[in-house]
Specification:
Radius of gyration: 22 Å
Distance between the termini: 39 Å
Largest sheet: 11 strands, mixed
Bound molecules: NADP nicotinamide-adenine-dinucleotide phosphate
Strand order of the largest sheet: 4-3-5-15-14-6-7-13-10-12-11
Mean pLDDT: 93
Strand content: 15-25%
């Protein structure tokens, strides 16, 4: 029965084959109940998805097996694979969304989004439909990965990007439509914003930032910082210009910090005004920075920052800027979280020009899977994945993107790189 909150292998779908092996992950109180062999939905994705997704499956399965578990994969479809199965107009089938909702923890490759015309981003649609409100991107340097900065090892930040609001909310109207003219009239005549919008064709977008959306994101970032012994959470915003949206995000963030955590969390102002900069043992300091300044700070004062919490657009920019410092898109992992749900996905896109060539770097997708393993509570398997990836890259067994930046080394295909990681998992386990 697709759509039930917690299935027990009773699901049936039209085009999705539910595997015979394995069981569904279910919610138990405030946590997850994870069977020995969970069923995990996987979207291969468009373009290079067909290269990186199978590579990630091989590595994640090997790590699970090496630590006494297994994974039963369930292919679900979106993008070009969905259009092939469900018809030309079906980019994101409802049963794909249901399957991820039902099975709670899933992983996906990249999905292509047409620029300008065409359908809206399937990535954004998935995050919104499943209310995956926090996009989490840990950014740390792996030894041996070439980097454009002198000390890439200083980069160790985790970005929490709000996923459901801001200018990404999809409240956007095209120039020349009745809707945009109506909205323009409303803004000018009823809201008094005259002489602001130039005459002639105009496109207008709306930027909603809610107290609810801001607070649950900041809460998640602070909880993470406390659980992982991080020192600070930095709220990033342009509240100096957008006072009632980005400024409100900052204020609501501080409210969470001040009202919900007692002595465990201290604001930077209180820290200096009352304690001369001496933070209580084990506490998390919450501060804030203006977004443009922060884009400099991640480069110039890298080791001073820890966990970052911000809205959708800032989060997109800042996490890519952080990602560049640790070797770029082939490396940067991510995951989207809702309440007791997780959809892991690499930061990079579908790089169509390399599709199906068994060439690109699967590290980002593999390390996204590592976040997923951590979320399952499989810490040992998650560590094995990271260590084995590091070992493989240190041996200079790398894909084209890293090979062109290092001296010597062996250039291998996507699948060969995955096999080399599996060999290291077996050695390390
Ligand atoms: P992209 O697909 O990330 O590719 C840009 C460049 O980054 C590639 O040409 C390649 O650089 C490098 N790259 C990306 N992934 C790599 C990997 N795994 N290994 C090695 N190098 C990698 O960005 P895009 O061209 O802007 O976007 C293409 C499509 O993906 C668009 O439709 C976009 O909307 C979509 N997209 C989807 C997601 C998602 O699904 N979450 C995210 C971002 C973009 P070189 O050619 O220099 O080697």
């Amino acid at each position: 029965m697709a759509g039930m909150d917690d299935p027990q292998n009773e699901m049936s779908y039209e085009q999705i084959e539910v595997p015979d092996e394995g069981e569904a992950i279910t919610a138990e109180g405030e946590g997850l109940s994870v069977p020995e062999t969970p069923v995990i939905p996987i979207i291969y994705g468009d373009g290079i998805g067909v290269d990186v997704a199978p590579a990630a499956q091989t590595v994640l399965e090997a790590a699970a097996n090496a630590t006494g578990n297994d994974i039963s994969w369930m292919r679900v479809y979106a993008g070009e694979h969905a259009r092939e199965r469900y018809g030309e107009e079906v980019h994101l089938p409802e049963e794909t969304v249901s399957a991820i909702r039902d099975y709670r923890v899933a992983i996906k490759g990249p999905l292509t989004t047409p620029v300008g015309a065409g359908f809206r981003s399937l990535n954004v649609a998935l995050r919104k439909k499943l209310d995956l409100y926090a996009n989490v991107r840990p950014t740390y340097h792996i030894d041996g990965v070439p980097s454009p900065v002198k000390n890439p090892g200083q980069m160790d930040m985790v970005t929490f990007r709000e996923n459901t609001e801001d200018v990404y909310a999809g409240i956007e109207f095209e120039a020349g439509t009745d809707e945009v003219e109506k909205l323009k009239r409303f803004v000018e005549e009823e809201m008094g914003a005259r002489d602001v919008i130039h005459d002639g064709p105009v496109g207008i977008g709306v930027k909603p930032i809610t107290e609810y959306g801001s607070k649950r994101l900041v809460r998640r970032a602070i909880d993470y910082a406390l659980e992982h012994d991080r020192e600070s959470v930095t709220l990033i915003h342009k509240g100096n210009i957008m006072k009632f949206t980005e400024g409100a995000f900052r204020d609501w963030g501080y409210e969470v910090a001040e009202e919900e955590y007692g002595d465990e969390v201290i604001t930077e102002d209180t820290l200096w005004e009352e304690r001369d900069g001496d933070a209580p043992e084990g506490s998390v300091v919450v501060n804030d920075r203006i977004a443009d300044n922060m884009l400099q700070q991640v480069l110039t004062r890298t080791d001073e920052y820890d966990v970052l919490a911000t809205m959708n657009l800032n989060g997109d920019y800042i996490s890519d800027a952080c990602g560049a410092q640790i070797g770029g898109l082939g490396i940067a992992p991510g995951a989207n979280f809702g309440d007791l749900r997780c959809l892991a996905e690499p930061v990079h896109g579908s790089a169509p020009k390399y599709a199906g060539q068994d060439k690109v770097n699967p590290t980002a997708m593999i390390l996204s899977g590592r976040i997923m393993l951590e979320y399952l509570g499989w810490e040992e398997a998650a560590s094995l994945v990271r260590e084995a990836v590091e070992a493989t890259i240190s041996e200079k067994t790398v894909t084209y993107d890293l090979h062109r930046q290092i001296d010597g080394g062996e250039k291998v295909a996507t699948s060969e790189f995955a096999e080399a990681i599996v060999a290291n998992i077996e050695t390390l386990a």
